[in-house]
Design brief:
With 363 residues, the chain is an alpha/beta fold. 46% of the residues lie in helices and 17% in strands. Strands 3-2-1-4-5-10-7 form a 7-stranded mixed beta sheet. Strands 6-9-8 form a 3-stranded antiparallel beta sheet. α11 (189-198) links the parallel β4 and β5. The longest helix has 20 residues, at 323-342.
């Protein structure tokens, strides 16, 4: 479906329909029909309009956004996270099997003596609440986050520092430095890693729990939908790649982490896969409603979101997709929403978390 950008162009230039019609040689009624979508201009008029407004024919036809400048989501700023508490609460819901965290701490990392832990991008202290019950008595936990809103929402009694991860540099060293779903939001993850390693004692442990977006996306299955239609990997990869090229927000940072840490001098690197898989079965209504509500909230879905879908199309086009690809992807999301929100179909969701850890040795 063609959606002309003609109205926006004409209004932005302060031009009347009559004037534009006179310039390109048609009636103002024809201009009106083009703008309302009741008619589509012939090729000669599309070329004339593009030349008049100084844009491409694809921009006239709405196949590319009018504004070509890439705009960042600014995910590493305090302002971005001001209204994201609902996302944090829902996306962290049942994220871990607690017995697996206990297994990591006691059997894999073999933490037997008290440790001082520093958590970069701690948010509202979710990871602290998950790990502290299994750490030896006397252990301490300090969290760093740029968002005061997140810190104020914290329920777990730990020490917080409101600071940018890029700027944080302190002489105090810690036995263990951790992060979860943090580096994926940054434009300079390697710089943040350098500061994290700089906060680590010699012999201390580095633990990074990060999502690889392709693994995360591939870990969704919804009853009644063809799996390949859920994936649409090639289209998704286009806008992930654009984010990487334009703002260095790395969709594959989870899988690259062992290599980044190796280059930064971390030794004895190992990688584990987080084991939580959520299966929402409508036969168990109470559990299904809980998991469905969390999933819907995490995705930001609303029952009637026509305007939001239009905005999503423009955002996706800004990230390198054609209008057809953007509309195809949003339509796909709409089908997923219909199956889960309205038809209440069974679904499965994994996280794609990779747990990379190693130790800082004497240089």
């Amino acid at each position: 479906m063609i959606s002309l950008n003609l109205f926006e162009l004409r209004k932005s230039r302060g031009i009347t329909q009559s004037y534009l019609a006179e310039v390109i040689g048609c009636s103002f009624q024809t201009i009106s029909k083009w703008e309302t979508g009741t008619a589509v201009p012939d090729v000669k008029y599309v070329i004339a309009l593009a030349k008049f407004f100084g844009v491409t024919t694809d921009q006239i036809l709405g196949l590319q956004p009018l504004k070509q400048d890439y705009f960042s989501r600014m995910t590493e700023t305090d302002e971005y996270w001001e209204d994201k508490l609902h996302y944090i609460h829902s996306s962290r819901y049942e994220l871990w099997n607690q017995d697996y965290m206990e297994f990591l701490i006691q059997k894999v990392w073999k933490i037997e003596k008290k440790v001082d832990v520093l958590d970069f991008g701690c948010g509202n202290g979710y990871l602290a609440g998950l790990t502290m019950p299994f750490l030896p008595e006397g252990s301490t936990y300090t969290g760093i986050d740029i968002s005061e809103v997140m810190i104020q929402d914290a329920k777990y009694p730990i020490k917080f520092i409101c600071k940018d991860a890029y700027d944080y540099q302190k002489k105090e060293k810690y036995d263990m430095v951790v992060c979860q779903a943090f580096l994926r939001e940054l434009s300079k993850p390697k710089k943040a890693l350098e500061n994290m390693i700089g906060s680590l004692k010699t012999g201390g442990m580095m633990v990074c729990i990060e999502v690889n977006r392709e693994l995360d996306h591939a870990g969704i299955y919804i009853e009644g939908l063809d799996y390949s239609s859920i994936l649409m990997t090639e289209i998704q990869r286009k806008y992930w790649t654009t984010e990487l090229e334009k703002s260095d927000r790395d969709y594959a940072v989870g899988i690259r982490l062992p290599f980044l840490l190796k280059d930064l001098g971390i030794k004895n690197i190992e990688v584990r896969v987080q084991d939580k898989v959520k299966f929402a079965n409508p036969d168990n209504k109470e559990e299904y409603d809980r998991l469905q509500g969390a999933f819907v909230s995490e995705k930001g879905w609303k029952k009637d979101n026509t305007e939001g879908d239009k905005i999503a199309v423009e955002v996706l086009m800004n990230r390198g997709l054609t209008r057809e690809e953007a509309e195809q992807l949003t339509s796909n999301w709409g089908q997923m929403k219909e199956k889960i929100m309205n038809e209440k179909k069974a679904f499965l969701k994994t996280t794609g978390f990779l747990i990379t850890f190693g130790r800082k040795e004497q240089i």
